[in-house]
Design goal:
Elements: E1 5-9, H1 13-24, E2 30-34, H2 58-61, H3 66-71, E3 74-77, E4 82-86, E5 91-94, E6 99-101, E7 104-107, E8 111-113, E9 126-128, H4 132-141, E10 147-151, H5 155-166, E11 170-174, H6 182-198, E12 203-205, E13 210-215, E14 221-225, E15 230-233, E16 235-238, E17 242-244, H7 247-251, E18 260-261, E19 273-275, E20 280-283, E21 290-292, H8 296-310, E22 322-327, E23 330-336, E24 343-347, E25 356-362, E26 365-372, H9 375-386, H10 393-397
Parallel strand pairs: 1-2, 1-7, 2-3, 7-19, 9-16, 10-11, 10-16, 11-12, 18-20
Antiparallel strand pairs: 4-5, 5-6, 8-17, 13-14, 14-15, 20-21, 22-23, 23-26, 24-25, 25-26
Protein name: FAD-dependent oxidoreductase
Domain Reductase C-terminal: 322-405
Domain FAD/NAD(P)-binding: 6-303
């Protein structure tokens, strides 16, 4: 019998976990793990945290050592970009002209940083942060006393700003919206985040967009803002969202919906082709329509589910979304999907003015929990959301409220 080949495009966290799950579940065919970077799969969350701060090197980020892939008979195919899928021939065509045959295919290509809406007049010292190479370039800029402008007050921008400040840089944080991450955090949570960064000396510019980035006479950069001001700096880092890496899949006729559309079994619209991780848009009981999630937890667990689906184990995947962000000594954790909520109730405000827990309700049903330095509340709140959200806004406001009491209702 001919030995089967399972190809995984995307040498990412999702791709690596899927490959090893295939072996764990007994697949004895060939496994190709194809990635466009030169690195073996690595952990991305530390890139904007411990790696920038010099607390973790490249080796510490690797998910597995090279010997682990050899021992599991998994073949990494690095520095290789896929140009197209030949569905009839069941083959992948690379940008350097190579053809790779497969029996089943899993796409874990993730997402890339969204480009600035304009072309900077000067490209040097202007960075985004998505890959290990990106992070190495950003880290080289974060020297004490340097002036850093961060564009975008999302999680990546906030983490980069925090790391830069801790390393002794003078940081300006520019956000086009009137408040950071307001759809997720609400006005109260956004205010707390602004206060957290302002208390560290970050210069925050809200409701302000960047029109252009020019060369400055001193060799640095001039960031031109919509309010007419200009920011002189040594380097710019931007994080203004992401774009799923699914163009080659779309060109091959696979259904796209802000990512590669999959069902609860991680199957795409084409038989034998699957997708998982940041590139996949999936149905979930926690939101309407298809949702593309960018989180470590989803990339790992959906990849495991996809591997099992490839082997014929049809187990529906719909874990509750979970995210986290570390900034300074503070930790944000979020369980569920805010966005459709009609009410946010805060509980347990800490003396630091930042810590506390936000409970998100949709028609009086708990749908998400946000914890600022409150991991216990998020852990228990996640279980309540999964069980149907049997807690009300009035419960949260009541004296002596404890979310743990509602776990088994």
């Amino acid at each position: 019998m001919t030995r089967k080949t399972f190809a995984i495009v995307g040498a990412s966290l999702a791709g690596a976990h899927a490959a090893f799950q295939l072996r764990k579940d007994g697949f004895d065919g060939e496994i190709l793990l194809i990635g466009d970077e030169a690195h073996l799969p690595y952990d991305r969350p530390p890139l904007s945290k411990a790696f920038l701060l010099g607390k973790a090197g490249e080796d510490a980020l690797l998910l597995r050592q090279e010997s682990d892939y050899s021992d599991a008979a998994i073949t990494p195919v690095l520095s290789t970009r896929i140009a197209s899928i030949d569905r009839s021939a069941r083959s992948l065509e690379t940008t350097n002209g190579r053809s790779i045959s497969f029996d089943k295919l899993l796409i874990c290509t993730g997402a890339r940083a969204r480009d600035l809406p304009f072309a900077p007049e000067a490209q040097a010292n202007i960075h985004t942060l998505r890959s290990l190479d990106d992070a190495a370039r950003v880290r080289a800029e974060l020297l004490p006393g340097r002036r850093i402008v961060v564009i975008g007050f999302g999680f990546i921008g906030a983490e980069v700003a925090a790391a830069a400040q801790e390393l002794g840089c003078a940081v300006t944080l520019v956000e086009a919206s009137e408040a950071p991450m307001q759809r997720v955090l609400g006005s109260e949570g956004a205010s707390r985040y602004c206060d957290l960064h302002a208390s560290r000396g970050i210069d925050i510019r809200l409701s302000t967009s960047v029109l252009q980035i020019r060369e400055a006479p001193d060799g640095g950069k001039l960031v031109v803002l919509s309010d007419g001001s200009e920011l002189a700096c040594d380097a710019v880092v931007y994080g203004i969202g992401s774009t799923p890496n699914c163009e080659f899949a779309q060109a091959s006729g696979i259904e796209i919906a802000n990512g590669i559309a999959v069902n609860t079994f991680c199957e795409t619209s084409v038989e034998g082709i699957y997708a998982a991780g940041d590139v996949a848009a999936r149905p979930t009981a926690y939101a309407s329509g298809l949702v593309r999630l960018e989180s470590w937890q989803n990339a790992y667990r959906q990849a495991v589910a996809a591997a099992r689906s490839m082997l014929g184990h049809r187990e529906a995947y719909d874990d509750i979304p979970w995210f986290w962000s570390d900034q300074y000594e503070s930790k944000m954790q979020l369980a569920g999907l805010p966005g459709t909520h009609d009410q946010i109730v805060w509980h347990d405000q800490g003396e630091d003015g930042f810590s506390g827990t936000a409970f998100y309700f949709t028609q009086r049903r708990l749908t998400a929990v946000l914890g600022l330095n409150r991991p216990r509340d998020v852990r228990f709140g996640m279980e309540v959301v999964k069980a149907g959200g049997a807690v009300t806004p009035d419960d949260v406001r009541s004296e002596g409220f404890n979310i743990q009491k509602y776990m088994k209702r």
